[in-house]
Amino acid sequence: MSDISVSKGVFAHKGSYKIGQKKTPRSNYDYSNELWYIAYKETWDIIQTKAESIRSNMISQLISDLQSFVSSVRSNSIDIFESEIPTAMLLTGVNIPDHDKIFQKIVLTLRTLTLHVAILWSKDSNNIKNIVSDTVFQLINKKGEDDALEIKKSQCNMRALKLWYLVHCDPSDPLIIIISDFESFSPSVLHDFILILSSYSDTIKFVLVFGIATTLHVVHRSLSYDATSKLKVKVLHMQTQIKSLADILEGTIFSSDILFRLTGRAFQLLTDIFLFNDFSVDRFLQHYKLCTIYHFYGNNINSLCCQRKNIKSRISALTEEDIKDLKKLPSIEKYLKTYQQLDQNKELNDTKFRKLIEILLIQFHEYMIRFLTVLKCLHSLVSTLPKAPLGKQLREVYTKTVYSSNVTESQEYKECLQLLNFLSKEELLTKLESIKTILEEDTEVEPLVKEFHENLTTRMNEIKNASLDVISNDNSEIISVNQKLTRNQLKEKLFKMSQTHKRSPYKQAQFDLINYLDQEIFSVYLLNPTEVPMNEIFCYNDGNALKQHIRGSVRGAIHMGLNDPQMYLQCDCCKLENEDAISTTLPDLSIIYKLHLESKKLINMYDWLQAFSTIVDPIEDADEERDIDPQIQARFTRAVTDLQYLGFIKTSRIKTDHVKRLT
Q1: What is the C-alpha to C-alpha distance for residues 22 and 31, in angstroms, rounded to an integer?
Q2: DSSP reduced 3-state for 574
Q3: Three-state SS string across 152-212, please?
Q4: pTM: predicted TM-score of the whole model, two decimal places
Q5: Rounded CA separation 513/55 (Å)
Q6: By the number of CB atoms within 10 A of the CB, which of 262, 413, 564, 641 ranks highest?
Q7: What pLDDT, in 10s, does the model give residues 30-80?
Q8: CA 185, chain centre distance (Å)
Q9: Tens of pLDDT along 327-364?
């Protein structure tokens, strides 16, 4: 009892914790040597390297134009600008989550031209004092680990900047100020800031860079004429988000170098989130990484998703249990049934099965390369057709191909074939030339390319030399006016005439070409990947599981947490024998929530309080209506308030002593 005293709150009390005492580290499961992790790491490293290269190329033109703009300002005298501030307006698009990384690269690039760069964000620039002090502070104090502050932030003003510029800077050196998120800045603050900079522009060479997410009209809507007249504007564009997504997909999912594939609902979900939610390339890659993790995690048989040279070593590393899991794959089960029917006398032992798996893996590699090549040919052929039934982008054609059981049987595909019959000779030859270019660039599928290329060249020559003149029908087939025919005879005559309809040589060559592409190319090589054995090793299409992790159900998570707190708290006191049980040791909010689930649309507050009191403070042989402990009543009131804040109940206007359930 000596420790329990007021002195414990006044003087230092020696506790059990010692400074420097470390908690015993938890023994983490080391999976770095697991087959599935090695395969995942190898796959994601390739994807990440390609993605970073593509992302750098996406803004390379923008950065190059910006460098040229700043260099031209630097080379010109300050008198040329006549008190106007050179301003570059970067139309970056509405990919807000990626803006941070874009402007980080821009700042790093501009620092190679001048060290005097300041980047401003709207969250730190809510008034003119903050925006001026932040700008001056960044320009004077060059960022570096060992650099001491040359000036305190409280001393930062335009007069201090002018004195510093005249002493430390060359007159040709521009001071670059980047307004990263122009739309989020206060128009009045920006207006005053531009006018202040303009008043010093005769002695200090400024360069403004505006990051604009929407259109140039927002500048004229935000700033009045007296501010915009002080700016000498140059507009620089970054490529559109649709083009950015196309580049990322071209270099990752549609690349034959990357063996892991997104198909079906998973691919459609990621592209829909990009196009309709955020336009963020960075977030798309994070979702792509999540798919890769879930595909490989804890599944050693997916380590077979590897390069050809590693197939034998990966197969030999599989255990007997992994082989059993491999045999349970739906595509393998289906294939083995067919295999055993053909070879009834042969037993498929472990060694033969491993050799069979090696053959199937190589076949899937070859299939996927052919699939991507032919898919690009189909896209080149149908992308510019009227209304584009299969879509204008390669990702749209890919989605329809991997989402439908057979794209060549779809209505959109048949409509495309009909539209191809109406193309002129010049249009058709242009499309065929683009297909030839695709085949010449892709050298990985030599047998297909060689045969396809030869047939295509032959048919193109036939089309080029074909005449457009239509050969008239035989006169004997013409029905005379005086000729008397019965209804059946007329029907047969008309049918015969339709069968003997003559085409021009060009139309016949065109018909033969489209029939060849349909029957011998697209119908053969555009088989859905889910129909090919071993597709589970390479393809991920579980869109429902992915949606739960990307778009979590907040209401469902709250219900799960309140109904079974042990799931999140991980404590023994919250363990329940069944979900409907209500234990005394549960948190107050969980008890209130469970009681509210047992109630009807209107909940009587007094009865609710009595039930809560009975659970948290059970007393034997007690009357139903007993005096409530003020502490229990306070706990009840707080829990009810929390439940109302979460949106499960609201006050009722019908009965003042009741609340209304909203679930």
Answers
A1: 25
A2: helix
A3: CHHHCCHHHHHHHHHHHCCCCCCEEEEECCHHHCCHHHHHHHHHHHHHCCCCCCEEEEEEE
A4: 0.74
A5: 39
A6: 262
A7: 677 888 999 999 999 999 999 888 888 888 888 888 989 999 888 888 878
A8: 28
A9: 999 999 888 888 777 665 566 788 888 999 999 999 99
